[in-house]
Design goal:
This protein is of the alpha/beta class. It has 2 domains: about 110 residues, Metallo-beta-lactamase, Chain A (4-Layer Sandwich); about 100 residues, Metallo-beta-lactamase, Chain A, CATH 3.60.15.10. The chain is built from 9 helices and 14 strands. α5 crosses α8 and α8 packs parallel to α9. The model has no long low-confidence stretch (mean pLDDT about 95). The chain binds zinc ion (2 copies). One zinc ion binds next to α2. The site of one zinc ion (ZN) has 7 residues, from α2.
Length: about 260
Amino acid sequence: MDKLRFFSLGSGSSGNCYYIGNAKRGILIDAGIGARSIKKRLKSAGVSMEQILAVFVTHDHFDHIKAVSALGNKEHIPVYSTQKILDGINNNIKLREKLEISAQRTIENLQSVQIGDFTITSFPLSHDASDNSGYKIDYQGLTFTVATDLGCPNEYLHEYIAQSDILILEANYDEIMLQTGPYPEKLKQRVAGDCGHLGNQQTADILMKSSTDKLKYLFLCHLSQQNNKPELALDAVKGTVPKHTLINVLPRTDISEFFEF
Ligand SMILES: [Zn+2]
Ligand SMILES: [Zn+2]
């Protein structure tokens, strides 16, 4: 059977997009970088647009949806999300070309869909978008969970992390860098709030509570350029996951390494 493959095309406020698939086909989680960059970065990893079966959108902030209309309308790749997020996408004034109805597919939180050999389950996360979904992808006995842009954990996140062999989890800011950094007070409160983003220490606490021996790979995502450093995020989570877990920080603006599980 085909091994599961993963690489990140971008992670953070300048655009988020992840490929999860096998040698033949796969899905994208978010399409927050330009369509041309997506095409180019996929190609550099040996994946063509025709191999993308679907895009699953976490939420309707622009850094997650920039290319959804190009992929949905022009490439005819179905775009899945909750109805609230799909509506939010077309209400986002930054998105000039709207996502046509024919490209929209609804998956409500706690529903699952089967796409090729992949079973994708959506679950709710707390964030200040129209709605926000994490995704759990099951493929040939492996469980891969993606959780980004959340202010605080919930029971679903804990449950799915406990089931995960592979996990992408946000580690947005270092608490001290955020508090002493250049952001205006209101923005600091938003980022640190329950509907904002996860700080390194919060991420560490979640991992400490929920990760199990099953966890083989941990990818830290959506690091803030202003308020975090990869070494601080890595330092915070050290010792919170099993010794055998390989930990990576996903690059902000470049394609990541290519992983096979
Ligand atoms: Zn984001
Ligand atoms: Zn967001």
